[in-house]
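Why do we care about 3D structure at all? Because function follows from shape, and shape follows, mostly, from sequence. That is the central idea of this module. The next example makes it concrete: a single protein chain, its amino acid sequence, and then its structure expressed as tokens.
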Amino acid sequence: MTPRSFRSTGHIATVAFCVIYLILYLTWRCLDHSLPSWDAANHVLDAHHYSELIKHFRPFRQDFWKEFLTVSFNYPMTQHLLFAVSQLAFGPSKYADAAVNLIYWLILFASVYGGAIKIGVGRFAAFFAIVFIAVCPLVVVLSRQPLLDFGNLALLSAAFYCMMGTTRHSTWREIVLLALILAIAGTAKQTSFLWLAGFFVWRLIALVFRKQFDANNFGKLFIMGLPLAGALLLWLLPNSDSLISWKNYYYPQAAKGNTFIITLAEHLWSYATSWPAIISPLLLLLVVAGFGYLVWAARQRLKPLYELAFASAFGLVTLSALSVNRPEPRYEIPIVYLLALVVAMSYQAAVDKDDRLGKAFIAIAKLVTCLAIVQYFVFSFVPYPIPGSPAIAKFIEAVIGRGEAERLDPAGYPTRGNDAWGVDWLMTSIKNADLPLNRLNVMSSTKEVSVHGLEVAALRRKLTLEVSTFRRFTLHGDVFEYNADQVPYYNWYLLKTGEQGNALADKVSADAYQRLENIIRTGGQYKLSGSRALPDGSRYDLFVTAK
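And the structure:
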């Protein structure tokens, strides 16, 4: 194969793969009828809040801007605004979320492909980097939810690509454009800027060692970071009191009474050992084999990745240093950009060197890629809508592995539209009661049906319903507490037998839960409105006020 045809084939393969993959993505979203739960549902509600503020734009009112800047104290507004704009176009439906994540996929594919080309690999090797990203189980799962982690990966990937292409010789126009991209990417989540800070540290050190620390070069770095700093302050300052309270509440839980150094080490170890959960053990094998081949046969090729590797390591260390939440693999998902480029570079090095070990690696890369694509289809479409044996699917997953995705989405395939978890039944029951006010308290909190998920369900059905719960999430379990005066405020209570979701934190919470359940079931203030059997063998009991 000639170099020219090699490049052409890689280009055609990339375009064809991206088109087919995005069609499969949209197909999955159309087939799925699940509700977003927990954080994902909360993001949908925050985006809806922004869409309502945009509809009723009041730029000359101080209270408008105060509300606008404090919709969600815990997150910068960047991604919520993007989802809000989509909701204005599609309404508060799953298609609004899918449209944004479809754009994120395009950004991610372009950034990975472009980044691979920038580090000097051919188009076919860059194609392998795209396939690697597309079949990572955790990336796949995150892209199907309105969580912020997938957008964080996509926007940071765009920033990584741009940073890899800039040098001290960049024009001021390029620097200003890059600064705007960094401001968007660095506020995708609370910790997004940490993954970009390493680039600035690296370049400051480089300027000092090269004795090029002059006003022009420092000025470019300063301008690059100025919009990002301003965007962060736009979030931090109006929400400072809430953020401090949140940190004071969660940090002791995350630290578990340990010193800062021990907590830092524990979080670093957790993130360092989470890579199999991020990309699956199968793809980790490909990364390790590729990196090993590069070190042995072509270590000079690694030089273009030094800066990105430093920035990624800096991001992991500073993320661990914050220690305000328990470490989860999805928080370090930006690392897959670097891993994808390592795969592309190792493949290109094997093609160029054309030795026996290189040929062996190419064979391994092709085999692993094919297995990962098989895993993607089994994970995503078996047994619904593609009929297949659950035993075969479990066997393939056991051999190949799908890491953290299993915890976030045990099923993988779309949720059928048969109201298995009783959401339509619940909404119809409340609507048909025709009460002047509807206040629902949910006693359980599961992935399928949670408080914020039911708020989203009511929003999509245009049902006026206030949903709340006496459960409060903590890192060591749910706390359940209430005052007797709060009980009659709600005229609807949804109780669940069997699985309740996150375990209660202590005996005090368990006793409080049992007391309230007894009041609802036998106290005479509420009567049973209806019951619904659930797929896990449990049952929903819906109670309404007896008055």
